[in-house]
Amino acid sequence: MRKLTLLFVITVALAAHASSAGAYSFEVSPGGEVEAPSEGLMTFESGASGPRCGITLTGTIASSGAIAAGNHFGAITGVLIEGCEEGSISGMLNLPWNITIEAILGSLPSSMTGLLLTIENWSILFGIFSGFISCLYQGNPGFLLELENLSANTYSTGRALWLEEIQLPKHSGSILCPESIGFAGELYFQPLQTIVVF
């Protein structure tokens, strides 16, 4: 049910803001360096199974900018992988990955509920058959950054939810590599950020 609700909300948001003029700007405090550890293990699925790993993304959030689709919001500069079960991940490549704004959920400037963000050129290398064969997957996964309204035009960041049914296509590798991989999980940005829209 949460999957259907999330997808419905995002579809409505995209339609509502498709013609937005993007006349608002934002300021983020403290901004700068952030980390986003996963809540428990994230599941990566390639074929019938895949590894489950603890993931922590590190990077930066822009201190200010225009709040409009296609604009820069931050970057992922590092990925820590630990505690994998049922397999392993060989590496995350082509860092840094830019984060851009895809859409705004709710209404600007005082009734936002979240930001739909995209991580550009996410690249993940899997090893299959005990690591003898490498499979590289690349794509632009989206996630929903939940926002809590603190007061007029002021918000606090909350959970970051990967959009359901994320699939990254195979970029290179053996014909034995699955054609795509999917993953799911929740992240929490630290420290919490305060966003002011004006």
Can you put this structure into words, describing what you see?
With 198 residues, the protein is mainly beta. It has one domain (2-17, 32-65, 76-188). Helices cover 8% and strands 60% of the residues. The chain has one helix at residues 2-16; strands spanning 25-29, 32-37, 42-45, 52-61, 64-66, 72-85, 89-93, 97-107, 111-119, 122-128, 133-139, 142-151, 154-162, 167-173, 180-184, 186-188, 194-197. It has a 17-stranded antiparallel β-sheet that branches. A hairpin with a 2-residue loop joins strand 12 (142-151) and strand 13 (154-162). It is elongated. Mean pLDDT is 83; it is low at 1-21.
Average pLDDT: 83
H/E order of the elements? HEEEEEEEEEEEEEEEEE
Radius of gyration: 17 Å
Name the beta content range. over 45%
* Count of alpha and pi helical runs: 1
> What would the principal axes of the Cα set say about the shape?
elongated
Number of strands: 17
> Helices and strands: which structural class?
mainly beta
The largest sheet is:
17 strands, antiparallel
Number of domains: 1
Distance between the termini: 35 Å
Helix content: under 10%
Q: Name the poorly predicted regions.
A: 1-21
Summarize the structure.
With 198 residues, the protein is mainly beta. The protein contains one helix and 17 strands.
Question: How are the SSEs ordered, and which strands pair?
Answer:
Layout (H helix, E strand, L loop, with lengths): L1 H15 L8 E5 L2 E6 L4 E4 L6 E10 L2 E3 L5 E14 L3 E5 L3 E11 L3 E9 L2 E7 L4 E7 L2 E10 L2 E9 L4 E7 L6 E5 L1 E3 L5 E4 L1
Antiparallel strand pairs: 1-5, 1-17, 2-4, 3-4, 3-15, 4-6, 6-8, 7-10, 8-9, 9-12, 10-11, 11-14, 12-13, 13-16, 13-17, 14-15
